[in-house]
Amino acid sequence: MTPPPASPTLEAWTAFIVGVFTGVPAWISALAAMLTVAAAVGALWYAKGQIDEAKKSRDLARELELERTQPYVVVYTEATPASEFFIDLVVKNYGLTAANDIQIDIAPWPVRAWPTPASRVELPRRFPILAPGQEWRTVWDNTKERAASDLPNHHTGAVRYTGVNGVPRTAPIVLDWAPYENRRWIARRDVHDAAEALRSIGKVVQAWNDHGELKIVHRDGNPRDAEEEREITEALADVRANPTPRSRRATPPAPKHGAD
């Protein structure tokens, strides 16, 4: 094989390359072809993997978005806002969408120790719907009365409801009174305490009215103060003009009655 001329043209280079490959053994050409095919297959396999990963990512994002928009209904206990001694039983939807057909199963069913005698807690077994953030609550028991009773402390169950796209959902229920037995808190005063104080004041005022003991004195301060100042000024002027106390001043003799 002769090399291309010193000033090669396109035809000369083409002839040179064809001559090179024409002289290559057949097994080398076959190996090159196999490597080319393998590279193509690898590229296709890699592309398929990328497509599958992208599809999984889209499916996961779709599932997460659906889960994020689902309702989330829970059943739990917490102190009532009015008093730390009373515990409420609460059913609340913390999700972003409405929960439908909420059904509650608790065993053993909640019972109150207060007020005596013990009574069953009336809790709907089924709620047609709970809007986002909506809750239902009732006073369950008084912690003092509960601690002195023989009622069970542990209650378990499940709340079942329907979410977005009719997806059935279930959340466990675990209610335990044991933590409330040694519970401690710091008392605080709020609007409720102010209302209680006003109610007590109202009772006292009402008692005054009932017994006729309430008297109202109206006083116009400025005119009365001016009058008192005038009287004090006149009294001081009188004292300066007559240093002798009035009680010690000579009094004119009493007129005589009858003729001598």
Sequence-ordered SSE layout with sheet pairings:
Elements: H1 10-22, H2 26-69, E1 73-80, E2 83-93, E3 99-107, E4 111-112, E5 119-120, E6 126-130, E7 135-142, H3 143-148, E8 154-162, E9 168-176, H4 178-181, H5 191-211, H6 221-241
Antiparallel strand pairs: 1-2, 2-7, 3-6, 3-8, 4-5, 8-9
Structural notes for this entry:
There is one protein chain. This protein is of the alpha+beta class and 260 residues long. Helix content is 42%, strand content 24%. It has six helices and nine strands, in the order ααβββββββαββααα. The protein has helices spanning 10-22, 26-69, 143-148, 178-181, 191-211, 221-241; strands at residues 73-80, 83-93, 99-107, 111-112, 119-120, 126-130, 135-142, 154-162, 168-176. The strands form three sheets. Strands 6-3-8-9 form a four-stranded antiparallel beta sheet. Strands 1-2-7 form a three-stranded antiparallel beta sheet. A hairpin with a 6-residue loop joins β4 (111-112) and β5. The longest helix is centred in the first third of the chain and has 44 residues, at 26-69. It is elongated, with a radius of gyration of 49 Å. It starts with 9 loop residues before the first helix and ends in a 19-residue tail after the last helix. The mean pLDDT is 80.
